[in-house]
Amino acid sequence: MVKIVLKGEKVSLGYFENKEEFLKLIENLDLETEQFLGGRGRSIYSREVVEDLYNKDIENIKQGNYYLLATVLNSENKIIGSIGLKLKREILKGSAFYIYLLKDYWGKGLGTEAMKLLLFFEFIVLNLRKIELGVFTYNIRAIKSYKKVGFREVSIRRKEVYFMGEWRDLLLMDILREEFIEKNREFIEKIKKLNKVII
């Protein structure tokens, strides 16, 4: 099972123990979820291609500039999503490469908590100064969640990604360390206590 690295109230973040855990998660994606990811799962790629993507993720992890984390539902001790995080340590900046939950767990605040945990990890543990992400403009649920934790809209890259027969606009968003801390002080204190972190 996943090795938990950061506990939350409803969800936690951890490392996949092996490739099969990751592949099993990807195999549970459907086309509705896939439309928000830009084609990372099995509805677009074969198992062999997904295995190759996983192996590339592992190589990036070994180089120290990437994290691949599982989102675990605490009440069931079950993997329900995944997060990919790229780092630019030399300028203390990170970018959320992707974040998703299986469809059965949408609309319950779990994705928002997972994003807050990720930002806690990036800003409090890794001491980064800024996090960026890109999201399709039609992914209203995700945009609302990102704004809730403190992300701000920066710009739109028009017709940036070709996916499902159309060129898609990409909304760029970012958040600064001080903005996250100011907006989420109560959450930060809860997570520090849950994880017995002294900062």
Briefly, what is this?
It contains 7 helices and 8 strands; from the N terminus they run ββαααβββαβαββαα. With 199 residues, the chain is an alpha+beta fold.
Key attributes of the depicted protein:
single chain, 199 residues, alpha+beta, eight-stranded mixed β-sheet, 8 strands, globular
SSE topology:
Blueprint: E1 3-7, E2 11-15, H1 19-27, H2 31-37, H3 47-62, E3 66-73, E4 78-88, E5 93-101, H4 110-125, E6 130-136, H5 140-149, E7 152-163, E8 166-176, H6 177-183, H7 185-194
Helix pairs in contact: 1-3, 4-5
Structure description:
This protein is α+β, with helices and mostly antiparallel strands and 199 residues long. The chain is 38% helix and 34% strand. The chain contains 7 helices and 8 strands; from the N terminus they run ββαααβββαβαββαα. The chain has an 8-stranded mixed sheet with strand order 1-2-3-4-5-6-8-7, sandwiched between helices. Strand 5 (93-101), helix 4 (110-125) and strand 6 (130-136) form a beta-alpha-beta unit. It is globular, with a radius of gyration of 16 Å. The protein starts with a strand and ends in a 5-residue tail after the last helix. Mean pLDDT is 84; it is low at 39-43.
